[in-house]
Amino acid sequence: MQLVEKKDGFEIWQGNRILLVHSPKNPCFYVGRGEETVEMYRGNFQMEDYLTEKIPLREAVKEETAQPGVCRYRFQDRLLVEIAVCGDTATLHISGQADAGNRLWIRINGEKEEAVYGCGEQMSYFNLRGRHFPLWSSEPGVGRDKSTYMTWRCDVENKSGGDYFNTNYPQPTYVSSRRYFLHADTTVYADFDFRHEAYHELSFWGIPGQIRIQEADDFLSLMEKVTAYFGRQPRLPEWIYRGAILGLQGGTKRVFDLVEQSLEKGIPVAGIWCQDWEGKRETSFGKRLQWEWRWDEKWYPGLPEKIAEYEKKGIRFLGYINPYLVKDTPLYREGKENGYFAVDGRGGDYLVDFGEFDCGVVDFTNPDAYEWFKGMIKKNLIDFGLSGWMADFGEYLPTDVSLFNGESAMVEHNHWPVLWAKCNYEALEETGKLSELVYFMRAGGTGSQRYCPLLWAGDQCVDFSIHDGLASVICAALSAAVMGNGLHHSDIGGYTSLYENVRTKEVFLRWAEMAAFTPVMRTHEGNRPDTNFQYYDDEDTMREFARLTRIHVALTPYLKDLVEENAVRGIPVQRPLFFHYENDPQTYQIQTEYLLGEDLLVAPVYLSGKDEWEAYLPEDAWVHLWSGREYRKGKIKVAAKMGEIPVFYRKASRYRTLFENIAGR
Amino acid sequence: MQLVEKKDGFEIWQGNRILLVHSPKNPCFYVGRGEETVEMYRGNFQMEDYLTEKIPLREAVKEETAQPGVCRYRFQDRLLVEIAVCGDTATLHISGQADAGNRLWIRINGEKEEAVYGCGEQMSYFNLRGRHFPLWSSEPGVGRDKSTYMTWRCDVENKSGGDYFNTNYPQPTYVSSRRYFLHADTTVYADFDFRHEAYHELSFWGIPGQIRIQEADDFLSLMEKVTAYFGRQPRLPEWIYRGAILGLQGGTKRVFDLVEQSLEKGIPVAGIWCQDWEGKRETSFGKRLQWEWRWDEKWYPGLPEKIAEYEKKGIRFLGYINPYLVKDTPLYREGKENGYFAVDGRGGDYLVDFGEFDCGVVDFTNPDAYEWFKGMIKKNLIDFGLSGWMADFGEYLPTDVSLFNGESAMVEHNHWPVLWAKCNYEALEETGKLSELVYFMRAGGTGSQRYCPLLWAGDQCVDFSIHDGLASVICAALSAAVMGNGLHHSDIGGYTSLYENVRTKEVFLRWAEMAAFTPVMRTHEGNRPDTNFQYYDDEDTMREFARLTRIHVALTPYLKDLVEENAVRGIPVQRPLFFHYENDPQTYQIQTEYLLGEDLLVAPVYLSGKDEWEAYLPEDAWVHLWSGREYRKGKIKVAAKMGEIPVFYRKASRYRTLFENIAGR
């Protein structure tokens, strides 16, 4: 990249293509003032900005600087920007001056055919072009589509319907089809607007310290650079490849009876994930958990012995935790006595409504609180014998709490999921368990790459809806991937069942066949286990789930290589097609297919009632996994009966024999 | 009012209260640039603005001017503002300079307790404080409440659900409880924002030529000034007081048979309003009309004779018209041959979809087209013998048409309803029929006061919903009133029936009892006559409707005096309570009661299943019309069985005997 100084401004070039321009006519910085309104209801946020000023900064005056290779520009009394362009990287250090205001806009040159991806884990749209994306960690929404009855009803009853941009994991970073990534070093509320043909407009409720733009020759190299910058996930523990992780609950007897039944049916079991190991509570939404993070001896009698017993059989036990503590429990009282919770503006208790129960928010900006909670994880979870857990939530930091570090909660809100991830990470690291234990999170932010070993896609509806069903998980995996989170999975069959919407056998099995072709298979009984289809509900499903899990296990050598590549180079396990077929323009628009590594193309059936499926294949020699039939580039149609998800392997793959064996051919 | 010049700015004072301030710290003008997106679907608009600049104009430089009493300020190269403050009036003439951009914001000082009203005919909120009001003529929406199933479904299926601010009749004018009105002389898209405690921010997609602010000592004087400026409505024709106007359709036989039945049941009939006099068409929405404006001889055989026959009995005949012509009819072809329709950007046909049929838009900016259409009204409607008509629509001018006068359709759109009103007005005026004929409109804008003799509230849902049912008509009447439109009425029982929502007998009767206490009673069979309750559906309703109409007729002496007052002084017939009780703060928040003249307070039952009702009475001696019981100030509860709408008269009224007789006491 290159910085070109002009008479009245400057330009940054990426090869022979312009990337950023400043001139009095086309300023790239705008500052202004806004007055925000933020309302939170159970993790659903309504953010509004009343804009009072938006000033284009037309005049840039160059100033001398002692640093070689750095150009410094002063934009009146508003901004000071130091630009360093070196090799593949441009960095813009931005300092707000006296009259900077509290809003900043930056325009990056766009191109007509350009596609952009990322902004964290996006569930609705992989290519972000044509839309804008508010970046604020929140509940992802139920339905996420204003045209559906589900979304409307959730909006009206609980403000929880969401929209296409809602995400647990936003990140002010995008990857361009021009083979660069741009990252804004800030955690303030941001909105990345890709609706304009000629430019991308990135806006911030504050002044980001730095904008980093880094290019590469191809997407794999770009991912190496992305993850070199943000960090890379560790390898998955060895035991995880042994089978599925069964999401079961309901006390010792029920859980282990179901495990035994599953084993009898031939389901390979890697782990038992027990979200109610710490007890449970009933709410109108469904079965919820007891938010006090210690073994519930009454609900799970004899659990330590069971954990030991099953570990000998090669089956691990996983639990659940989140960074809140329900009021009036012993742990809550301990935290409160020590002042470990975020407080209100006058130093009083601040309790957050999580849906019919209230909790204190552990103040991770207080080092003592952070260490206390980390210590609790070590003691109550790790020492107890858990091999992993869902590290849930992280998105609910209210914006009107007072924090120990004195920082505004508007700034810390998007930072919180990463602090929460880091707390878990360090608990593992400090106990030497990073390669043995695993936790999975839905919330995230800049740095999740380093601190979260496994994402899970959050709480999909138990259906085939485009914006909140099976299809949305593919988009989530791909957008997380380009952010550098190469390990992703989801609740098989989805989680949220509301009103008349319940999980069917078809939803479960289509989801399961997809999960077999992801790094991790894990079931979840959902928010209303009794009324939703479960894998153990009939013989036929047990058999089919066993078969799919065996396929997944059979993929182990291939998956391990991919996970290794992710750990070492930061190349994600699930990848967009254009990562390997960058000369094919059609691949840039695909968000319902993915490459599992370089050699498997997976085109999940994400609609109901299908027995054949249309897939797009980029130029290569592809072999349909189930029929062995060969295909080349183009839209093709294949049989797709239940259990035979459209999957194709590259004929030239060195894993060809493995794939052939999997198909039983 | 007074202009006070300051060192760096100026102030306008209303007595000892500040009204407008300009200083470098608190500028009152902001200019900027925006890029709008406008999408229309069947009269429902989606307006979006992408704001690229919003610049506070901090520096005002005073310039010399030859005009005495005028101060001229130059705001850089952006605005030139000439301020004249004289007596009760301040005017700001605004000229955009080279760098003005295409957006303007003006801040007017607000006060905490201040209430504001108007912005045209508003259906949801009378006091506009706390909300913003986009001002753009459109369909009013079905449901108008994003929390209702009706609105959601209409949005999803037809983009037609609307919101609280949708109106057929927007006007960039408000009346403040501080006893001034402010008017912006422009027809561009505007948004009046009353959400801020300290100021009202008025924004415009263009530079308004003038802002006028005029104060008065009391609200009645203020209304005189409002209507002195905008114009006043003529008196209603004499015949209208003789009874109800029956909305009937379906051909000669059906209509006149129903009239006869109505007369037999003792219903006083002033007119027959026949919307399908020109023929009809069936659509999925319901029965629609044949949009060619001439008598349909086949559908209405012998109509001229019938009109003459009934006129002798004192019963008038009214029809229907709107400013569009359906494609491929003789009148359409005539207009097309002469180039009388608005065209697309390349001069080609521009047809507007009105819901399963397409029409040409008569270009009223073309004097020949305007005269042609006016001549058609004279010939086909007036000469034919109609005594009035619904002059429907006017809100559908697309923003991408090319107009004869070369003006942007973005500017003419909000002007259109008034051009349409004027065309009707002149047809009456030029034929000497202003005192004998009447037309009623739902669309409006600045100038409707002069050119539209009677508003009707548009297409309410046939229900008790707050935002689109009976209650919304009261708000509509009051907000239209403060704009200077003192004659208002509505479709008894509402119009729009969709899905399972149909008009019940209760809705009809509650609406009818309210209509009896408005200037005009008129029924409408609605969009789906067959499935909705009609006044002629049962004996009981015929009898009750006859009784209510007789009450209405009995009010004639009082109503005529009010209509006279409206014509001469511009004091509206239906009035907000604070017009006469301005020292009572509670009256400023009331939008579900009104004063009919000074002496009747009407508190319509706008909810279902009530047999008593709570009303608020300001300080006075009030007599409950039906019981004769006396009340004074406060919240009171009265019996409110069907047919006995809560109405109170002032004990001191000179019409007391009239009111006593009406109640049959």
Automatic annotation (TrEMBL), chains A, B:
Residues 570-651 form the Glycosyl hydrolase family 31 C-terminal domain. The keyword Protein biosynthesis does not apply. GO terms for biological process: carbohydrate metabolic process. Pfam families: Glyco_hydro_31_2nd, Glyco_hydro_31_3rd. One of its GO terms (molecular function) is carbohydrate binding. Keywords: Glycosidase, Hydrolase. Residues 252-559 form the Glycoside hydrolase family 31 TIM barrel domain. Signal peptide: none annotated. Belongs to the glycosyl hydrolase 31 family. This is Alpha-glucosidase. It comes from Diplocloster agilis.
